[in-house]
User: What shape does this take?
Amino acid sequence: MVRMLLSRLAQAMLVMLAVTALSFTMFRFVGDPVQLMSREDASVTEREALRDSLGLNDPILVQYGRFLGRIASGDLGISFRNQRDVAELIAERAPATLELVLVATILSLLVGIPAGVLCALRPNGVLSRLVQSGSLVGISVPTFVTGTLLILVFSVTLRWLPSFGRGQTVDLGWWTTGFLTPSGRAALVLPSLTLALYSMTLIMRLIRSEMIDILSTDYVRFARARGLPSWYIHFRLALKNAMMPVITVTGLQVGSLIAFAIVTETIFQWPGLGLLFMQAVIFVDIPVMTAYLLLVAGVFVVINTLVDLTYALVDPRLRTRGV
Amino acid sequence: MASTMKRLTRVMPPYVMVAAAVGLLIILAAIFAPWIAPQDPTSTMSFNLMDSELPPMWVEGGDPRYLLGTDNQGRDLLSAILYGTRISVMIGAGAVLLAATVGVSLGLVAGYFGGWAETVAMRVADVFLSLPAILLALLVAGIARALIPDADSVFWAPIILIAAIGINEWVQYARTTRASTMVEASRDYVRAVRIMGLPRWRILFRHILPNIVGPILVISTINLAAAVLTEATLSFLGVGMPPDYPSLGTLIRIGNEFAFSGIWWITLFPAVTLVALVLAVNITGDWLRDRFNPKLEGKS
Assistant: This one.
């Protein structure tokens, strides 16, 4: 167990180191900082002085070390586009994205698990066939198409729900929430549904295949022979064991959802991190791009590591296998 | 080849046959777009702003010259879709080719030689796997925009897109190739050619590669669908093909701006084409994968 823990942590560190190296390279070599910071008519000696004072003449490893130190102290630089502190920008946008991802995750579990159970228990029923073919379409239709269709139906034609923005939000000091106002809740519906659709189908297919596997095992057959009630077999034995991989996938999906929110937020003009990043890509705002990369990579690595470790805790067979 | 095709079609369930036919039809129509399209949507000479935003032929106000209507610039939508599909498929194929070349070479070397080359290649693959695909693709697009002044041009945009998509897909090739190379490397025929003293690159590319090419081709069909989808997403987000040389994603994005004023056809028809293409290739690819390589199953 300890060995597994250590090797997972080492791997996580390696990934983060690679990502910071990538960010540093972007920061340092994409566009010349001196060019960006000095006046157009600055002389060569002035530029050299600036280069020196910024420490750009130091050995590359020293510069990289300094970069790591700055990140560790929470200094992510200044946005080229609107001259604001990047850490501040991110803190301001994060609640919108996190609320969206939270609602999408809950939604995908609430729909995905019952749908998967249904398809496993009644594989030939009309309803489960419908759900199954729907899930294939759900995987093949890109997010931006479903989002657009939802807007066309529910915002343009029926006029039930807003098509952009977060609605009215309540400022809690360090967090702005849309949960507390009717317009904020209404604004969440379409974006979170769009975002949830893919992981919903994923969870549904996973539960279905796991349950079908488990229902054909010997211990389930034995339980049936003992005459245990079918609700007990289906839900206490099969569903409980089928939930194992769902823990992993849901965990991993949270990371993907944050990244995939880039597309959803662009469609719905949702003022979160994804929209911030997308604008940074279009306007070549390197500090914002690197900060977002570091943030998402960090979240991803932490979640991956936690999921692996939880898995090892829940399933003792994995403890000895190592990585 | 012909006999293989005959054998394949005999065992294909009807829905796969339909999907394969639809996919093939769309791809062929895309390849031959310049010959079958009524108009060249990339040349401003061939369309007229006066004809802009005409609805499809069968809707009131439609013009019989434009089967699916026209877009905001007066381009024939059917032609734009045919050319757009061509661009999407070419970029997708380019990305798959790039990813396969890089991934298969690395996988072969890692699987056959082992040692530090294997460790480095596989650790790098781990790093790529631990980042979401869309983020990596957007980063490549973003960096390219910073380095290349005319990144939106007709010349650079496809190259950037191919790089941005390929950077995600090589990992799967590297892992699959490495695993099968390791199996093959311990077989007798490899030992035999090694004793014969053949050079190592010859063993790798002439003896091992032909034996592991099956699963590589199968993942390529599924990767093609994924690549077309990523291309469309990037173009939709505004970092892909420019509007005067649109891919399917660009067309959907352009149409999106008009959809709210009731002009639904500009966005709907390209979207339907995209979904049909991706769905068809996915169904065919899934079936091929299950049929030829049960080991690869489950990574959906």
